[in-house]
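Our platform keeps sequence and structure together, in a single record for each protein. This encoding replaces a full spatial description with a residue-level series of whole-number codes. We quote a single record here, exactly as it is kept in our systems:
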Amino acid sequence: MGRFAAFVGASILAGALVAGVALPFVGGLGLSAKAASENFDDLPGDLDQPFLSQPSYILDSEGNQLAMVYDRYRILRTFDQIAPIMRQAIVAIEDSRYYEHGPIDLKGTLRALLRNQQSGGTGSKQGGSSLTQQYVKNIFVEEAGNDPAKVAKAQAQEVSRKIKELKYAIGLEQRLSKDEILTRYLNITFFGRQAYGVEAASQRYFSKHAADLTLPEAATLAGVVQAPSAYDPIGYPNAARDRRNIVLQRMAEVKVITQAEADAAKATELNLKTQPLPNGCITADQIDGAAFFCDYVERVVKNDPAFGANKDERDKMWREGGLRITTTLDRKAQKAAYTAATKGVLQKDPVADAVVMVEPGTGKIKAMAQSRPYGFGDYETTLNYSVDHNMGGSTYGFQTGSTFKPITAAAALENGMKVDQEYSTGYDIDMRKEKFRTCGESTRDAKYQPQNESRSETGTWNMQTALEKSINTYFVLLSKDVGLCPIATLADQMGVHQGNGEALKQVPSMTLGANTIAPMNMAAAYATFASRGVYCTPIAVTEVAKLDGTKLSVPQAGCKQVMKQSTADTINTLLKGVVEDGTGTQAGLKDRDNAGKTGTTNERKAAWFVGYTPNLSTAVWIGGAKNDVEMVDIKIAGTTYEKVYGGQVPGPIWKSAMSGALKGVDAPDFAAPPPGAIPPKPDPNKKPDDGKPNQRDQNRPPGGGSTRPPWTPWTPPVTPPTTPPTGGGGATKPPETQRPPGHTRPPSTGDVGGGDFEGF
């Protein structure tokens, strides 16, 4: 009977429009009653319930919350989860005859029309919309999102909109009960201060659930709805209290409370107990600096096609929220990385650092930390030094120095060379006239005269001793014989590209780390060695579920074998020597198999240690965020260094981070390399037959002085390295710039890699 009465009430208004009862109102808006009737009949009767924007939750690998992010803060509640006094308060002030009339209060509407017409357009307009109509209007506003033009249209005082409200209101009251509509209204309406819905408002202003609201609190919230800015309890407490008292009096008038109860409530203060509504990744910085990882996850969702065919679709999904995003972050590893990063380099030091951990064989990013916290203040940053530019990182990445040498060594092994490949060199080597084969035309550098770190580093080296002591001259000769194309091709297969998303520059100094690369890509590349030649694309998300339990597809690591197991096993053994008896001894772990490589760039503007165990790969970078700090006579974390080396500052940071992350974790061993793969070390004092230690052993004519067997020269592959996609997104504020292309550097020295090359 109630539904029938509601329908009759709505039909009366529709008939009134056609008959001209509301003609002064319609005519004043330039719409005839006939037109109004035709528009009314043309509208669909049903209005779909929109997906109400809600927070998304970013969780660690164990399901613990890292951050809550939202476009609109809203927590949906059922009818029984909202205090009865709150329901009564909103009905009393917004539509006191709500349970008596149909989808429209014809009496209230006509009264409002007459009073507004009698006012001659002056003063405030009196509304006549029922709660059902208000709910419909809120749906229009919700669908408009954050587009100001669409929001204005959704709220425009036009008869066409009123007609829409009416038709949809009729349909709603035919399908839903009054209680259901009231619940939806209380979940959708705006209460100011980023609080959408009564539960959010209860938490924002009173730090409690909507089910626990008292009479004065409920009246306060009910009063806010009419004008959230004007009646803001925080900004305008006097206006909010006056409005609350109006609500209380109205509740007494309609007899949902007594006058005595109203008077007692009026005598109280607002008694706000406000709390901020935490929003965004910046809140995750409190969890061992996890804000940068959180920011990376947000960019994954906004950039990866797995979450939408185009940017608009992905942005819409992010705005709507309601997602539970389970990530790969390991709390113990994150704590270890953050502790090591912030103790090894202090926030206000002239340089910063980054520590990023990747799991071999899965690509899971286990931790991401840096010395400067997430923020916009002094010695804070929103740049994620660990990742590519399009994912929130620096403009180019950072030169890697000698940490690139193991990739050159692996490419040599993959192309038929052996660990016993020897070169006899002096302290420096003149490569100005030498041409290096690329995937296209050969290239040379007319200024290229690389040096070793120390003048004492002369003699005969094989791949093992050259890696342990980081001999630049050896690796320059090795890269020339192998060719730059197979090195770049293997690097590409290992996920190594420049921080701006472009493929590596194939230049003579490539093997010494002249390209600018993000730390995470180096960690993932070294994880390839740890997993016996299997490369996995780094991933940060393992599951995305909607609130209804629906699961979305997520990006996959796409693990694939990119080098022979024997190659990876051999490199692992060679790099064990670096931490046991080479430049990385300060980084070596004593209780488990581990391997790694130091790296320092020209002018010491960046220093690295990248290392791994069979179950975790970690890259550590330190340097100026703009690549503009020469780490010479510099104080870092309270210690003054004459010169910074990769094994000296990044190495101990790596050791601390790995020790903490792997505490209590199994310690598997690396697989042994093939028998005979690691030959005896050569005599470092051995000289070539011509007695010229500054020349390389060409091994062409018999008696050339080399003990290495002949090898088959490399043949260019059909498919050259690809340029990684740059993706969408990018930094949300202008990025701190790196050293501009085209700069010049002095020749490379020792563990110090990098160097000049054309076109950079």
Notes: The longest helix spans residues 2-19. Residues 77-267 form a domain with the Penicillin binding protein transpeptidase fold fold (CATH 1.10.3810.10).
